[in-house]
Amino acid sequence: MKRRILAAAAAVALAMGLSVTTASAAQLPVLAGLQTSVVGASACAPALEGGTPVLETTAPSGGSASAVALSGVPAECGGLAVELFVHDDSGAVIASGTGTAAGTVSVAVDAYDTSDAEAVVARIAGWIFPTTWTVPAPPPAATCVPMSTDGTVVAGSCSVTRIQVSEPWPDGAGQKANVYVSVTSAAPRFRITFNFAQAPFPGWTPVAVDRGNLLLAPGASCSTLPVYTMNGPTWSSSSYYFNISSNPLASASPCPGP
User: Fold this and answer.
1) What residue numbers bound the domain in which 250 lies?
2) pTM (two decimals)
């Protein structure tokens, strides 16, 4: 999904100290011609797309991010200061940052959730440029790496082919759900890292993880939740299972823990 903010409206909004809003977008056709002629007079001007200069922006990955990937910057703008402003759907700035312009560059900004971002405004050496914003795909719910029988991570392929989460049921002051996974590994064992903040997990961060027929991974800590890592057992199976709970009084292994 892409969102575009045209330069003239963005320039006016920033000059007045206002956020970019959906309402201002309705005024853009009236101002676009003026802004195109102004930008065209500068040596630092991107290529025209439909009569309007456009840069492309996205995030390095979905979920929480602290950078914006900027591309399409013309050579004339290389080495100049660039400012980026990330806006939500109300027009409010939710993150901003500065960097040095280049054809393709990653600019560090304040931490933000990519699902909240609606558009990005770019300002290079004082010039406001319209952009397109592409929402990146969210991070996977689970990833894995192959592991030898002694627990050493080795080279090779590993893929999580199935994640099935049961319908949660009441568990004291929280909820509980069973999780079933299937893994294909080039080695006898695997190490799997779950991100419980992603679908198909139920949307709450577990405070307890009962490892089922998976094993505790060295160095794994409950402090990393909703991300957590476990090892595959020394025997293979077509399906592995464990359960998660949001009940703060749950007793489970390996969490609660350090």
Assistant:
1) 142-255
2) 0.60
